[in-house]
Amino acid sequence: MYQLSLAGETLVLGTLLEVMARFRTDARISSVESSEILLAHCGQPVDVTRYNGALAVRRPGSVRDVFLSMIDEIDGAYFRPDGVMQAAWQIQRSHWKLLYDAFDLTSRPQLLFSSDQIDEAKAVEGARGRLDLHELLQCECERRFGFRYAGPEYGRTRDRNGRHEVHVAYALADGLPVPEAVLAEYRELPDRFSTDMRWGRVLLDVPELRGTMSPAKVRTLVSVMSREKCGITSGNAALLAMVMRLAPNEPSFVEVDDLLFRHGLVQAYDLPDRYATAQPLGAPVSAFAEVFRRLMADSRRDTSIVRLRQERAAGRISQRSFDQQMQIAQLEHGRETFEFGNEISNAIDNGDLPYLLNLLDRPDDSNRVSKQAVQEAFGAKLLSVRAAARRRAVFQLAGFDEAQQAEWEAAGAAQREVLLRTHHAVRAAGVAAIHPAIYGGKTTVAQRAA
User: Fold this and answer.
1) What pLDDT is attached to residue 439?
2) How far apart are CA 176 and CA 90, in angstroms?
């Protein structure tokens, strides 16, 4: 046992590793002068000093003997009390962590040993001239406990892990008698279990679920139920366990969600709040804008429905998610605004050639709805035609005849700007009519809408 005294207070700690942990984590201790700290082991004083500002200890003996004596202490006190080796889940988290504190100390031996001790240890190593405490501890752990830094095997697999919560969670899932002292420590921890092991927290809080299903089923069940308001409680644990017997051994999220939905243990998803209020659609500035809005709404709805059916058929989306998203697809159809259609219509009315070329002079798989709307409203075919014919149709849409198009194509950037300004001025003055092949030789789009 170790007695740690300072400022009139004495702490009794079982192992040197616990003393080192206190030095590192207790602000009251780490902030005082080392000369004010008294440390004794079985009545014998232990020197306390500082190394690079951190509290350190110095004990006589070889590096190997002093270091392994720390492992002897936690072995006898916590890992093998009464000579019986404990499983990881039978050891308290704070005691298990001491072994990994020892691994951390292998990279900072100066917290335990003087320069003379370290130099002597390197000399013993001979030609290698290095002190490998990490490998020493690896070998010692394997000899004593049957595992190295990677940790012992857990669950029904041959996987290994050094994280204590992994072993506790799997033990709870298997219905093993995890000691109350182990569980009590986890109840007091704010986070209890790390994110990927949050299902272990449910087993800690709901003992009725322990030993009722495999860890794989627990993991997926918790993932599904974490999104439900009711969650998993002592009140529904037995029913959930009974229904989960119908799930595959390694169930997916979708499989469990569908299973619980079929049995009424989870409810259909509500629609997002935004669908409780009407969407302002605006007003169309032209017949074209009306056509565009209708085609765009149809396209988006139909694309969503095809995608959702494919995802559902492939098992990538649950039934209730599918139902909700299908509802949303239908509702979004009626919430499509006139904004983009009006923008395009204004570009056509204003002869905004750069805008129209950027939007429409593209391959068939790009901006299809815009091209379909142009064809339906004006009869100008932009799909399934050669590139030259498509480009010519866009120029016509902007009010450029063939000669003007040729001049534009031949001009540089500065000249094109001049041509565009001239074209706009002519259109604004009403001198130039829109190309008759597209507008019938009569009016502009805005005039037609009026």
Assistant:
1) 41
2) 10
Which pLDDT score is estimated for 130? 62
Interior angle at CA 53, CA 136 and CA 104, nearest 5: 25
- Give the residue among 103, 215, 202 at the shortest CA–CA distance from 162: 103
**Residue whose structure tokens are 């207070």:** 9
Among residues 23, 21, 49, 13, the alpha carbon closest in space to that of 34 is found at 49
Tokens representing 391 are 């480009």
DSSP for 37-77, written as a single string? -EEEETTEEEEEEEETTEEEEE-SS-HHHHHHHHHHHHIII
Helices (runs of H) and strands (runs of E) counted in the chain: 22, 5
Summarize pLDDT for 81-113 with one digit per residue, the tens.
989 999 999 999 999 999 999 999 999 999 999
* Cβ pair 152, 146 in contact under 8 A: yes
Q: What is the pLDDT of residue 432?
A: 41
**Residue 14: CB atoms within 10 Å:** 16
Question: Measured between alpha carbons, how far is residue 268 from residues 256, 324, 356 in Å?
Answer: 14, 8, 45
Helix (H, G, I), strand (E, B) or coil at 365: coil
